[in-house]
Design brief:
- This protein is an alpha+beta fold.
- It has 13 helices and 15 strands.
- The protein folds into 2 domains: 19-136, Aminopeptidase; 155-312 and 344-352, Aminopeptidase (3-Layer(aba) Sandwich).
- The protein has helices spanning 2-20, 32-41, 52-61, 112-127, 164-169, 173-184, 196-209, 216-226, 264-267, 270-285, 300-306, 338-346, 349-360; strands at residues 23-26, 65-72, 75-87, 91-96, 106-107, 131-136, 148-150, 153-159, 188-192, 230-237, 240-250, 253-261, 289-296, 312-314, 316-321.
- Strands 1, 2, 3, 4, 5, 6, 7 and 15 form an 8-stranded mixed beta sheet that branches. A 7-stranded mixed beta sheet has the order 9-10-11-12-13-8-14, sandwiched between helices.
- α3 runs antiparallel to α8 and α6 (173-184) crosses α10.
- The relative contact order is 0.14.
- It comes from Massilia agrisoli.
- It holds the Pfam family Acetyltransf_6.
- Residues 175-306 form the BioF2-like acetyltransferase domain.
Length: 364
């Protein structure tokens, strides 16, 4: 009898040992709710780790994705979303995560991190990519000679209060005057369930900057996938579109992610009012962090956000080279793109909006 009991106990112990061993998996549709539940509760996870980005990237751009997770004792303990971009113009890469500010490994178990890193390395080798990119808030591979870091992007994050007056007073004087100007000129913010008015403001703005536009379908799918966690806010003066911003809500944060203004926005402080209007709404909704998002060093967007009293925090984008001999440099500050930018600014906006999506899909 004792031998039977011992055998049963040994089997239970073996089963428990197997369950306690972390194992690597690829996310399937049935796993998406579990994945998002993990992201919602993992302290270092972000909106850009949500499972819905797989749907967005695959449906809009047709890029292949691999959303890896590590499971231990029946629970997800780490995730890593990856997508491949293969372009003759911009190279062959694997990244976590294209079209997102962040997306690198996040985990609640130290055992999960090497499994996810190793999965990315093996996949990068099997695909024959030029480089692997991990978009992190803080370095994950410091001191590792196989990884390189590039100082190009910063993020701007700041706590906000539930009190509008306190938030207004926290804005530096000159910037505060611009916000008040928009208020005095009668600007108002309206919430849209469709992307049309936002896209008009956004596409006009990026055309003025000389950069390719994302397709309207991209924003439609984002809104469809993320629902109420994606807000489209249009700033108007009467019936006139002034500016528009597409924002994400995550935990107690608001992230204005895509935005732009019409030419009239400059004369009536449209962009200034837009972010104040969003800040008011987010504070009323219970948000306590305003994430102004990513900007490149040395750009107008960088200066604009600093003028609001936000301090920049460097983003730790890390790269591992495979077929490539040098780090990627696909950004508008690269001197080789200056002629392209000037040409794009002179192009009719309808043509730019038609051609832009064919280019931007490979930039990520």
């Amino acid at each position: 009898m004792s031998s039977i009991i011992e055998a049963v106990q040994e089997k239970k112990a073996a089963a428990a040992a197997i369950a306690a061993r972390p194992t690597l998996h690829l996310m399937e549709p049935k796993d998406m709710a579990r994945w998002d539940a993990f992201v919602a509760n993992c302290p270092e996870a972000t909106f850009f780790h949500r499972a819905g980005w797989q749907t967005v990237i695959e449906r809009v751009y047709g890029h292949k994705t691999w959303f890896y997770y590590v499971e231990q004792n029946g629970k997800i303990v780490g995730v890593l979303p990856l997508a491949e971009i293969k372009s003759r113009m911009f190279g062959h890469s694997l990244g976590s995560l294209p079209f997102c500010v962040l997306g690198g490994v996040v985990a609640t178990s130290d055992a999960a991190r090497p499994l996810l890193d190793d999965a990315a390395d093996k996949l990068a080798r099997s695909l024959g990519v030029g480089h692997l990119e991990m978009r992190n808030l803080v370095p994950q591979h410091a001191g590792d000679p196989n990884w390189y870091q590039k100082e190009l992007y910063v993020t701007f994050r700041k706590e906000i209060s539930a009190d509008d007056e306190a938030n207004m007073n926290a804005i530096p004087r000159k910037q505060r005057a611009m916000v008040r100007k928009g208020i005095k000129l009668g600007l108002t913010g309206e919430i849209d369930q469709h992307v049309d008015r936002f896209f008009t403001a956004y596409s006009t703005s990026v055309h003025r900057l000389g950069t390719p536009v994302f397709p309207k379908s991209y924003f439609k799918v984002i809104k469809e996938v993320f629902g109420d966690d994606c807000e489209i806010r249009t700033i108007v003066r009467g019936d006139e579109i002034i500016a528009g911003v597409l924002s994400f809500y995550f935990r107690d944060e608001v992230l204005p992610y895509y935005g732009g203004g019409m030419p009239a926005a400059r004369e009536c402080a449209g962009n200034d009012f837009m972010y104040w209007n969003l800040m008011q709404a987010a504070a009323a909704r219970g948000c306590r962090i305003f994430d102004f998002g990513r900007s490149k060093l040395g750009t107008g967007a960088f200066d604009f956000k600093k003028n609001w009293g936000f301090e920049p925090t460097p983003l730790a984008y890390e790269y591992r080279l495979y077929a490539s001999a040098e780090l990627p440099d696909n950004n508008p500050l690269n001197p080789k793109y200056q002629l392209f930018i000037k040409m794009w600014q002179k192009m009719p906006i309808k043509l730019a909006n038609f051609l832009g999506p064919f280019i931007v899909r490979n930039l990520g």
